[in-house]
Amino acid sequence: MLSAAEVARIRKDFPILSTEVNGYPLAYLDSGATSQKPECVIDAEQDFYTSRNSAVHRGAHTLAVEATDVFEGGRAATAAFVGAGEREIVWTKNATEALNVVAYGFGNASLDAARGAGDPEAARFRLGPGDSIVTTEMEHHANLIPWQELARRTGAEFRYLPLADDGTLDLSDLEGIVDSTTRILAFTHASNVLGTVNPVERLVARAREVGAYVVLDACQSVPHMPLDLHGLDVDFAAFSGHKMLAPSGIGVLYGKAELLDALPPVLTGGSMITTVDMDRAAFLPAPQRFEAGTQPVAQVAGMAAAVGYLSETGMDQVAAHEAELAAYLYEGVAALPGMRILGPGPGEPRIATVAFDVAGVHAHDVGQYLDSKGVAIRVGHHCAQPLHRRYGVTASTRASAYLYTTQEDCDRFLAALSEVRGFFGVA
């Protein structure tokens, strides 16, 4: 794992961590929402704009060639980082867009097939009455609403795997919910609220038994643990750059190459076609078929720098550091009176995210008090309203750590949290 000296060295790479908030040094415990950026990522974006700024795949001049090299080099680096092929990495603006590209691709295939039109290869994605789509009760809205909408548009049945009381998935009726009608099983690798790491192998195995496609929300796993998408055998996956040290405005859709080549595109226009006439157009294979229009090349440059930084640090090291922080945060919150933690306890697989409800104090008030002490955390429903409803709360407070988080950050958070109920007169 990372030593205290190594974490101290890492922190020096992040300019914002030297910021003061309300007269206190910043203790940033909101990396689950967005991560901070090291100087190498900031520099990579600036270097692109100052030295290589040009459109990609559209020119023969030197700057255009260099920009394209940056763009495709970032794709290669990202593919290697998550155990994928270069043609299996599609740039999107975030994970939400990536998941919608898949959902709307299935929808377009279903519409075309119903009309007897479209590419015959896309017919494999057709959905209709008698089919089912399955997700889980713990999903971020980005991996819930697109499937609700796809079910509504196609007439497929929408189902979900429920949550157990301990914050894990209740898989007691997995075979009954994911059955022979199931065409899509979409689930998160790690919960952004509960910290739960789901049993991907078991869920994929069940999907394979019934011939369903697997869509993985990897937003909270790619930044925090080693990942091999080929090894996991998922069909599609999505993650966001801004949660893994990269800039905002860049996301990734992973898909098995043969599936991406068959999936109908959602955004159409320039740069994703082979030929166009006034009656029809023919589309390029993946990944370009999903990358219409001007691309976020500077953000890709930043993404490549972020991937390089994490690779050099070592994802095994990052995961081990966060495992220690996860236990420290969980035990620290649990030791305080009036705290109800949402999610699995020690011994269960989890990321360094701890969400909790403070008896008698609204989450927003908790957040404001902690901010007054220079501690940044997340409050609200974290884009997971059904999850919160399942546990009888409308909002929670969430602390989430990353490779640059120190035990001192956690101690300052716990010290401020210990004062909250007394400050609001409910202790």
Automatic annotation (TrEMBL):
Q: Where in the numbering of this chain does the Aminotransferase class V domain appear? A: 28-413
Q: What is its EC number?
A: 2.8.1.7
Q: Which UniProt keywords apply?
A: Pyridoxal phosphate, Transferase
Query: Enzyme group, top EC level?
Result: transferase
Asked whether the UniProt record includes Transferase among its keywords, one would answer yes
InterPro entries found in the cross-reference section: Aminotrans_V_dom (IPR000192), Aminotrans_V_PyrdxlP_BS (IPR020578), Cys_dSase_SufS (IPR010970), PyrdxlP-dep_Trfase (IPR015424), PyrdxlP-dep_Trfase_major (IPR015421), PyrdxlP-dep_Trfase_small (IPR015422)
SUPFAM superfamilies, per the entry: PLP-dependent transferases
Could you tell me what reaction this enzyme catalyses? (sulfur carrier)-H + L-cysteine = (sulfur carrier)-SH + L-alanine
- So which cofactors does this thing need? pyridoxal 5'-phosphate
Family note: Belongs to the class-V pyridoxal-phosphate-dependent aminotransferase family. Csd subfamily.
Kindly give the PANTHER family that the UniProt entry links to this protein. CYSTEINE DESULFURASE, CYSTEINE DESULFURASE 1, CHLOROPLASTIC
Provide the function of this protein: Catalyzes the removal of elemental sulfur and selenium atoms from L-cysteine, L-cystine, L-selenocysteine, and L-selenocystine to produce L-alanine.
Its recorded name reads Cysteine desulfurase
UniProt organism field:
Brevibacterium samyangense
